[in-house]
Write a structure and sequence with these properties.
four-stranded antiparallel sheet; binds iron/sulfur cluster; eight-stranded mixed sheet; single chain; globular; alpha/beta
Length: about 350
């Protein structure tokens, strides 16, 4: 695999001790219960985000990326879903021990989230200004006139032209790219420590995608916040992330710096992901697809969940689940695979 030329995304001034994780997930498990059985959508996920850094979480649909993020926000519909194990440490405190009222204060104020399709997250019957004003008044307790002035400032900050006019427009009057900017303005309006962005550019055309990524990066640099970026798009990760967690079937299978991963992925699934991308495969490498599909969360295979699709699976892989362990000679890089040496030759 050809190494991709990577720039190192700058780690901005942080909002906390640079070496103490802002967010740390420890063996998080979120399951969904139905007549069809138990879907173990998130099943022992551990990763951390340092202050001021961007963690990219990648994987195919059904890998558990978004359910993990919704678990952090405690927005899992219950029932049928439930966080059944693990810890979500935010600034050292386990969010799973917080009351709903405490979580309401944290959501939007300390942790904000933007989604793929802003039209579903924006309220169509309120102006964009009202939606920012509402957020700021709830979380900051300031009067309406100050909140409106802040809303106009936020719209200007995210690059909306004529913000003092646009503030009184409704979501349907804006383009898709402008709506995503409004979502970012709402998310940033209370100066959060952590922004969770779930496929923020997937619904946008390529030019607008680049603008939105630039915007997130600029705002992050200015505000010193951390970003948890969920995407299926490795090119997006290459642009903005410091670290990457690769997820498969409800678990993290590899965690590495963006440079390590793009130089040479270590886990066979991560290697397969890279080989299936036209922009990231080397010039002489034929594109390959990973055979098979992500298994449904109600029927994960025994042993290593990737074994039915893995080109180097052995009998051990079929029966014994690999733990996430350190990769020799690489500080902080972890991989869940029984056959790391063979995987390196892929
Ligand atoms: Fe493949 Fe086995 Fe490694 Fe799983 S543990 S990725 S099946 S080699």
């Amino acid at each position: 695999m050809a190494a991709q030329q990577q720039h190192e995304p700058e780690r901005p001034d942080s909002k906390g001790d640079a070496n103490t994780p802002l967010l740390e997930l420890k063996q998080l498990q979120t399951h969904f219960f139905s007549d069809e059985g138990t879907a173990r959508a998130v099943d022992g996920v551990s990763y951390k985000i340092l202050p001021g850094e961007t963690l990219g979480v990648v994987g195919e649909s059904g890998s558990g990326k978004s359910v993990t993020a919704l678990s952090v926000m405690q927005l899992i519909p219950q029932p049928p879903g439930k966080v059944v194990g693990g810890e979500i440490l935010f600034k050292g405190q386990n969010l799973l021990n917080k009351s709903e009222e405490e979580m309401r204060r944290i959501r939007g104020n300390e942790i904000a989230m933007i989604f793929q399709e802003p039209m579903t997250a924006l309220n169509p019957v309120f102006t964009v200004g009202d939606q920012i004003i509402e957020t700021v008044m709830v979380h900051r307790g300031i009067d309406k006139a100050s909140a409106r002035a802040h809303a106009i400032k936020m719209l200007e900050l995210v690059g909306i032209p004529s913000p003092s006019t646009r503030v009184d427009e409704y979501p349907h009057q804006l383009s898709g790219g402008m709506r995503q900017r409004v979502m970012i303005a709402i998310a940033m309006s209370c100066d959060p420590s952590l922004l969770i962005a779930d496929e923020p550019t997937t619904a946008l055309d390529v030019t607008i995608q680049a603008q939105i990524l630039d915007l997130i990066r600029d705002l992050q640099k200015e505000a010193g916040m951390s970003v948890l970026l969920i995407t299926h798009d490795l090119a997006v990760v290459a642009e903005v992330a410091n670290h990457v967690a690769v997820m498969y079937a409800g678990k993290v299978v590899e965690y590495a710096t963006v440079e390590e991963l793009f130089d040479k992925p270590a886990h066979p699934y991560a290697t397969g992901l890279f080989r299936s991308l036209p922009d990231l495969a080397g010039p002489n490498e034929a594109l390959a697809t990973i055979p098979g599909m992500v298994p449904p969360a109600t029927r994960f295979p025994s042993g290593c969940r990737f074994h039915p699709r893995c080109p180097i699976a052995t009998d051990l892989c079929k029966t014994q689940e690999p733990d996430l362990g350190s990769l020799e000679g690489s500080a902080g890089r972890t991989i869940a695979c029984h056959h790391i040496d063979e995987a390196a030759k892929l």
